[in-house]
Amino acid sequence: AQSVTQPDIHITVSEGASLELRCNYSYGATPYLFWYVQSPGQGLQLLLKYFSGDTLVQGIKGFEAEFKRSQSSFNLRKPSVHWSDAAEYFCAVGAAGGSYIPTFGRGTSLIVHP
Amino acid sequence: EAQVTQNPRYLITVTGKKLTVTCSQNMNHEYMSWYRQDPGLGLRQIYYSMNVEVTDKGDVPEGYKVSRKEKRNFPLILESPSPNQTSLYFCASRLRGFTEAFFGQGTRLTVV
After folding, report:
1. What are the chain B neighbours of A36 within 8 Å (beta carbons)?
2. What is the rounded distance in angstroms from the CA atom of residue A72 to the CA atom of residue A67?
3. Fewer Cβ close by (within 10 Å): the C or N end of chain B?
C-alpha cells in the first residue's frame, strides 16, 4: 500500500527566507507525486507534479520539487517566501497508471513572519 | 470556466437527519472522489468513482453513500449523520492517466 509522510506539522519562516517542506513516500514501484496548496477557506490547488524525466520539477508560484528515489523523497522548495505563501501544503502519491487513487499526507502548515 | 462545484458550502444539521452534498464538474472527467479533511489527519478518501455507475470505497466509507448516475455529478449522501461526521468535505475530479485532481471549494458540515 502507498503512504505519504510529511514530518513537519508546522513550519515558520521569515518573509524572503528560503523554504523546504519535506515529503517522504512509500510505494514499491514508480509513483505519481504531487504537491498541492490550500489557502484558508479554499480548495486545493496543484503546485506541481512528477512522474518521470527530470527529477527537478518546476511548478507555479516559484515553487520547485526534487524527486530522490534513493531517499523516497519529494521535497518542495522555494528560494524566497512571500507572505502570500502562508497556507497548508499537501504532498500526495499515486500508483502509476490510469486508475491511480492518490494518498495525501497530513499536511504542513506554513507560517510566514514579516 | 472549468470547475468543480459543491453545494452547500456550509451546513449545520442534527443527528440522524439525512442530507446530501452535491458535487458537479464541467470538465468531462472520468474520475471523481470525495474526501474529508480533519485537523492533523489530512485528507482521507471516502469514496471514489472511475466512471458512471462505477464506485468504490476509499479509506473511510462508513456512514456515507454515493452514486454516479451521470458523468458530471457525484453526490455524497449521509443517511443518518452523527457528530463524528462533522468535518470539511472536498469533492475532486480528474481525467484518466497521469493527471492532477481538481478540487471543489469544500463543504463545512457540522452535525449537532
Report:
1. 103
2. 8
3. N
